[in-house]
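Re: that backbone. Tokens:
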């Protein structure tokens, strides 16, 4: 609903055409035309002219703006039905017509009464078709003077609008009375923003104002109107958005070109720098290749492992206390062989040490000092043998943490 309202607001525009077609007894038609422009909250009359042929109207009215059309005069019949019984007080013409030949409009009064207006469909279609063929967009068709609803002052308790041939009584902006008058040809005028307009154009002016104010009374049911209204709105929307869209496309293309130029310049600069440093880059790549070959050789030859063995051996040897001697130290000792299997397996991260000590206390202190190394996770005594006064044999296992 919000999107629909926004589209209608954007595509409504600020101008409209009001047209009153008055059928004459001789078969002719008088066209009272008013074109208005809305600036902010102010409505100004740009044109107010009377024509006796549709061709003259087509020369003046701009087809870019919507048309709100009223029919009146010879061939338009108004009947007032009371709330209690069906009778009519106002009548212009009594003709017999089939239902399909007649269009009907209903306007409700505040006391429950209603005014039903009728006219022949062919009279409506004749003018409407000519306007449509010439590219005009008719938004609303009203029978009689009921477009004057938009001119009623809704903040007044009582309001009366007198126009040639009619007097309309409003209360709070709602129609309460509708009568015919004999002073159809009385000449008078009304003012719109300091401009004096003949009273003959009152209904045409009210029609044009309907574009901005709206009316509560519904016009005649004519399916073509809603189709033309949608066509106008989308055509107007395309016309309004065409220039901003082209501007956005142009700005996007300019920004894209500037970004492209920036990256192209940076790329050219980088390529020039790379070309100038080609020898350095080539030397770097050759050196990196040599370093990679040496790295693979050292890894495959076990150089790093031998270096660690030397490191661990030095730390263990440096921690041996007095009264304790090492006879053998084995890194990654051979695992127990599985019967029937000839392959030899080794236990990683394990060091076995054999030796003898003159005191069990010295051995215990040495084990405690070994546990202080971060790369040693645990030290276990696998064997300890003391035969009299001889130094005791021991066998310990060191489990490394891998740090």
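Recovered sequence:
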């Amino acid at each position: 609903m919000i999107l629909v309202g926004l589209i209608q607001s954007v595509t409504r525009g600020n101008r409209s055409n009001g047209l009153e077609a008055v059928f004459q007894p001789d078969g002719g038609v008088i066209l009272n035309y008013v074109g208005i422009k809305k600036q902010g909250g102010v409505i100004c009359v740009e044109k107010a002219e009377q024509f006796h042929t549709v061709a003259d109207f087509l020369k003046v009215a701009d087809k870019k703006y919507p048309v709100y059309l009223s029919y009146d005069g010879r061939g338009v019949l108004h009947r007032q039905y009371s709330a209690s019984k069906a009778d009519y007080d106002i009548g212009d013409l009594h003709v017999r017509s089939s239902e399909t030949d007649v269009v009907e409009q209903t306007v409700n009064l505040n006391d429950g009464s209603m005014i039903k207006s009728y006219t022949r469909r062919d009279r409506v279609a004749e003018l409407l078709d000519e306007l449509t063929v010439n590219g005009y967009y008719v938004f609303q068709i009203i029978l009689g003077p009921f477009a004057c609803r938009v001119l009623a002052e809704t903040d007044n308790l009582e309001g009366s609008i007198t126009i040639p041939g009619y007097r309309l009584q409003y209360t709070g902006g709602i129609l309460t009375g509708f009568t015919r008058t004999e002073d159809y040809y009385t000449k008078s005028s009304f003012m719109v923003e300091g401009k004096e307009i003949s009273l003959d154009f009152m209904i045409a002016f009210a029609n044009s104002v309907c574009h901005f104010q709206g009316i509560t009374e519904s016009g005649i049911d004519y399916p073509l109107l809603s189709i033309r209204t949608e066509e106008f709105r989308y055509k107007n929307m395309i016309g309004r958005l065409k220039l901003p869209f082209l501007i956005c496309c142009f700005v996007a293309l300019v920004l894209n070109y500037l970004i492209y130029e920036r990256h192209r310049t940076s790329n050219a600069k980088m390529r020039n720098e790379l070309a100038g440093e080609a020898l350095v880059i080539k030397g770097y790549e050759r050196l990196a290749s040599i370093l990679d070959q040496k790295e693979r050789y050292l890894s495959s030859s076990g150089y790093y492992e031998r270096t660690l063995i030397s490191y661990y051996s030095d730390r263990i040897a440096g921690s041996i206390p007095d009264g304790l001697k090492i006879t053998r130290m084995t890194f990654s000792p051979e695992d127990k062989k599985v019967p029937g299997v000839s392959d030899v397996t080794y236990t990683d991260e394990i060091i076995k040490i054999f030796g003898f000590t003159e005191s069990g206390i010295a051995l215990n202190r040495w084990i405690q000092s070994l546990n202080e190394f971060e790369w040693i996770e645990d030290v276990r005594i696998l064997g300890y043998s003391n035969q009299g006064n001889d130094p005791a044999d021991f066998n310990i296992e060191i489990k490394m943490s891998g740090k």
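The first strand starts at residue 15 and ends at 23. Helices lie at 2-12, 54-60, 121-133, 202-213, 223-276, 278-301, 303-318, 360-370.
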